[in-house]
Amino acid sequence: GSCKKSLAQRGVANCPTCRAVLDVPAKEQVRRLHQLLARPDGRHTRVAQFYLGQCYASGMGVAQDSSEAMRWYRLSADRGYGNAQYSLGTFYDPETGTGLAQDSGEAARWFRLAADQGHAGAQHNLGGHYTNGTGVPQSDAEAVRWY
Fold it and tell me: Residue 67's pLDDT is what?
């Protein structure tokens, strides 16, 4: 990505959040994400937070830890990152959640935020919530709008 040269000048060999190919082990990617997040906030912060959440959710390069995944997703989602908002919605959704904090209303709220940004998975899941009236008032019209 375009940030690769700039990051290399600051001691980060590859950008862990852009589309630059990373030919490093997962543990090294996690280390680089933490290194990036130790710096002042920048344009990559919310994406790096999301990827760190993915690492903890899947156990890639770190021990799998759903609570830690939720924490990183929440930081990213609060910054408006649609993928993190969707992922947070799946954690809260009783249909897909991990059991940490299942709450249909919270799931629908996060899906709505991501859906408003055009996230197709969030739009589909939000449609399901409106179809079933889980976390939102049942509405066939809203369901059709989001499906």
Answer: 92
Say what the pLDDT of residue 29 is: 87
Three-state secondary structure string covering the chain: CCCHHHHHHCCCCCCCCCCCCCCCCHHHHHHHHHHHHCCCCCCCHHHHHHHHHHHHHHCCCCCCCHHHHHHHHHHHHHCCCHHHHHHHHHHHCCCCCCCCCCCHHHHHHHHHHHHCCCCHHHHHHHHHHHHHCCCCCCCHHHHHHHC
Whether this model's pTM surpasses 0.70: yes
Short-list 89, 31, 27, CA closest to 59: 27
Distance, CA of 90 to chain centre: 10
Distance CA 114, CA 121 (A): 9
Q: What percent of the chain has pLDDT over 90?
A: 65
